[in-house]
Amino acid sequence: MDLTQTKLIKSEWESIEIPINKNETTILKMIQTAYDDVNYSYNYNSSLIDIIKLHIDKQQLIHNYIFTKYFKTIVKLLIKKYKIDYSIPTFKSKEINIKREDIIRIEHTDPKLHLIKNTIYEFEIIDIIESLLKSYKKNKDILYYYYYTLYHIRNVRINHINIHIMHFAQYIITHFENNISTQKMIYNSYNYIEKNPILLKYKDIELYDHQKKLFTVVKQKTPKLVLYQAPTGTGKTMSPIGLVKDHKIIFVCAAKHVGLQLAKSCVSMDIPLAIGFGCDDPGDIRLHYNAAKDIVKNYKTGGIFRVDNSVGDKVQLMVCDVRSYLPAMNYMCAFNKPEDIITYWDEPTISLDYDEHPFHSIIQQNWRENLIPNLVLSSATLPNKDELLPLINKFTMAFDGCIVHDIVSHDCKKTIPIIDVEGNVCLPHTKCATNEELDECLQHCSQYKTLLRHFDLQGIIRFIKYVYKNDLIHKSRYKLDNYFDDFGEINVINIKLYYLELLTLLKQHWSTIYSKYMPYIVPRYKSTIKITTEDAHTLTDGPTIFIANNVENVAKYCLKLCKIPIHNLKAIEQNIAFNSNIISKIQTLNDQLQAYTDKLNKNDDKKYNRDPFVAKIHGQIEGYTKLMKSANLDNTYIPNKIGHLKKYNNFPCTNAFCCDIPDYVVEDIMKTDVSAIWKLLLLLGIGVFMEFKDIKYLEIMKKLAHEQKLFMIIASSDYIYGTNYQFCHGYISKDIIETMTQEKVIQAFGRVGRNNAQQDYSIRIRDNSVIDKIFKKDLNRKEITNMNRLMG
Description:
The protein is an alpha/beta fold.
């Protein structure tokens, strides 16, 4: 892994100035607010009272009036149609006598109400109840979907929900509870729970449990070491946005792009920020202008011309690489007490999978000279507390009264299944053939429950059905109707935990059970490796990442699969070669222009614009630019375009994901100084993450990845850690499996499924030997050995 720690270049500084989107801003504001009240939450959705913007000083009158005017007739019709024994509340005139100004607001909203009904919570509740009643009458299992949905969204934190509608909803829940079978609910949980769009729509926005614990423990005034282990994509790297409410933060990261993403969020949130990348001493620290006291502005443009970086008492958050930690620490300590600072070290095990690495001496020195008594070690794959005793003892001895806090989360609200080479879903019951193998696997998975997110819910349900059909459960407390005491306990996490207990119950006779179950193992996919042809349609909902050491081999394979006719390929390659020649000439002219303009007075824009030599060079550059030839492919070669789907599949694929690359981006890529193969790949919607001489190519790829414009990204193993783009599917190449530790495998898996949507996800491994690295304990974890060696 390339851990070169260098100063930010101009484009990287500019990248942190790009505002984050509205949804991200809302989440970050929630994190800041919830630091003071960890149970704080909000909901995007609105009640009818909120939509109309009614006064709520006399809430009962408002609720009575709204129910009578908008909901009473609908509820009455439902009661009559489905013969429900429910008493509709009726009110005297004085009980619905609301203010005249509220009536005016209602009259103003009425004409457009039909346009916004689907955005109003109470109308959604009524629709769910109606669907539930209809499905019950027709004796359809979809009843479970509506019952579960109603049961769970009744408790959302939406302001001013009509109390009478909620009373009716509670009546329906109670009325039907004896008609709901836990077993049948579990059997349908994939569609009714995990893929339930209404649950996602009405989900409260709140902290993860691990964030609540973190915010609680850091408020303690004693020195502290926090071992912070939570799955990827669950907000760990954004937690410092909340911590700055009460502390100064040094955010340490080996992966520069992770630090830049946090820096970008800080700028958008107006958090005074300092940057420490590639620093040899505190004098190399650079302040963002929102953290600077002394600023010199450009008298012509009004922009920031110079910042005094030596005064950092406004800085709230320092982002630095590992190499720069000590300069960053000394800088922050010059303006703050060490006890008021938290060092937040993101992915501290990076490079520790090597026996020896140049990075190790830096880590050792940082640990030895550290002055900050508050440390958070944050990673999805952080070793457990009992595995880091030498490290813990060293830190607690250095800081009197230090308390160690162990925060472990196994959030798995979404499922990201692992698919093997044969297209089978990997689960303990499909991969463990003997009692001993299963026992080893269960012990490991029970200790590292973060692996639950890779347990495929559909596969689990299929196995549970088999167990019940064959009457393999002999202890009544493990029967589904007995195991789940309350309907509210039924969720994806608890179903997966039940699955582990079920396997524990069955493991004594597992070899026999496995041999009989084998015929029931059906591949999820017939094939997965024909990425750009027959199998492209299985890459759904969003971009795919393919992680490999030999990126060029994967690229050539993707092109070879497409079987682009030689004459087409040659024509495109000729155009690319022609364009490369043009680019070379343009670069020569730019060099001449730069050399010439360096001699001019840079502040004299008028003289520059009137200079005949400058005008001549600009004219030549424009002329060459017009000579650039277009390079494009027929849609039948571009994965998941309509022509491509007809050619290879000839059946509807509503969620097959394809690229969406604007023409101007193609033109920009053609102008970059990279090999023709990378330009050809872009025409297929495939980008590449690796080191390039022309950094413009990689900058364009990052932008396309952020905007989800690419069909697939092929990334070198340098991008296993900290690639925070949204991917729905991932491939792990054969050529990196041998050198990957268990931790690194899990980190690679963590690149997928980072968004909040309920989509189809998958991790597709190209070597089945990796399965043991997931489901069995690694007895020789280099990361643990090296952490204790360097920091113990």
